[in-house]
Task: structure prediction
Amino acid sequence: MSSDNVIEVRGLVRRYGELVALDRVDFTVRRGEIFAYLGPNGAGKTTTINILAGLLHRDAGQVSVCKFDIDREPVAVKQRIGVVPEESNLYPELTCQRNLEYLGQLYGLGRSERRGRVDELLETFDLTEKASVRFRALSRGMKRRLTVAASLVHNPEVVFFDEPTAGLDVPSARTLRELIRTINRRGTTVFLTTHNLAEAENLSDRVLILIKGKVVTEGATDEIGRQAAGAEILSVVFSAGIPVDALRAACPAVMSANITDEKWRFEVANVHQATMQIVAWAEKSGLTILKISTETPSLEEAFMAILEKNSAGSEVRR
Amino acid sequence: MSQIARALFISRKDVESYYSKPPLITWGLLFPVVLMLAVYVKNPATYLVVAPGIIGMTLLFGNTSMAAIVITWEKRSGTLQRLLLAPVTHRTIVLGKVVSAAAYGAATSTVLTLGLVVLLKMPMVHLPVFIVGLLAGAATFALLGLIIAVRVREVFEAMTLLNFFRFPILFISGVFMPLDALPAWARPIAMVSPLTHTVELLRFGVTGRSWFPTPWIPILVLATMLTISWLLAGTAFRRHANR
Ligand SMILES: Nc1ncnc2c1ncn2[C@@H]1O[C@H](COP(=O)(O)OP(=O)(O)OP(=O)(O)O)[C@@H](O)[C@H]1O
Ligand SMILES: [Mg+2]
Result:
């Protein structure tokens, strides 16, 4: 077991009656990274978080969080992790300040440490003015911010975010993303689920994609696009319109072609071959190439490609 | 910091959240006070026969209801999950919830008792036994309330389930009807009802007399019931808290 792995999961299985919600899931999360755990609705993301956080029992597999087995030493694990659940679940009748203070008590912070920490968090999350407002009276964005703050009261080693920005307006979501980045920069490992793939691409170091309880791919965020799409994108702007069928015929390395505005996007098997073929064809056809560049498919494109590939199995529930 | 300290933080927060609402205290007291007055007005000479029973009944209803409220309400609103995420054991949560629920019933019963002592000059022959009865009964009823309430999600469901056993035992536990007057078939049930033993301890505290020859019998029985409920509550909580 490497000392740099904060979470290690091997052969994790969870069933709900007949349904296999997690089917032999394996992954590791390294210390200090932002790990995006992605998948369509019903993939098993929340189930995974609930098992890792000790809310739910597993049917098989090994799970270690911060080096502790969650079944055998739940209190040790819980002391070291923070969870931002799908639904904000703070006490509606308590004020912002009292909510954080209470959690500080439950996590065993001493009185003065608690005071300092609560004030600091209210400040960081821009809720100082709302300190004595009851949780139920906050706006959705503020509730979400306080829920994140609440997960940090005890300076956890890892924080699990279950769709932290769902339902937030653009500025609030952006602020929250910024905060997640800040938390991570200060050394906290982040486990993130989200349906916003741009957000995942933007924040995460590594990505795992889960479909119907099975891991379908895992890797560095900037690699996953290429891996998943199985192709590179070559984008080219020509001096004039082109007969695309002629180009396709002359350039076997081009697998598909489509145009937006003036820009052609060619899916290519091999960048070098395709470039040489396109240049040669342009030369012969008397066309000038104004611009040529490679693009990596976005995480969203990769995600869609993976979903299509697994479409026999993927099913949207809820 | 120890788990016990954390349990007390849980209780304190519950007291803040739920009990500080005045209507709850008033409602908890209203019914027993009205009942007590009715008995007293009818025949001032015999109110002492039922007073310990009514104090016991206040404990039973107050504590089981409160336990039901603190558990189902938090389950529904999702806040119970907060406790399950926190570094506390299930036993710690049960302890925290039970202490706060028991405190509620103990407090309302104490207010009722003080009222009886001050206004009706109710005697208090053996205060320590009275206190033991009050506390042991409070804890047992709170645990029983929790064992039942943790299985459901709605307060009314919990109340309905609770009423299945609360009302029947009210009539066979020596509250309104002396144990001697019970039909033979009801006796054994009376003996396994925690309310019987609570009421007899309270009766001994107030009047110095009890159906049992010595208060040690109900004390031991209640201690046993308390232990069993504690174990059952832990299991019930582990099994049902996260549903
Ligand atoms: N308590 C439960 N009882 C039965 N089935 C459940 C339960 N909770 C989840 N499931 C099922 O397990 C599967 C995984 O659910 P889970 O909530 O983990 O998905 P998710 O990836 O978090 O989805 P979403 O993106 O919609 O939040 C789903 O098919 C869901 O219906
Ligand atoms: Mg989910």
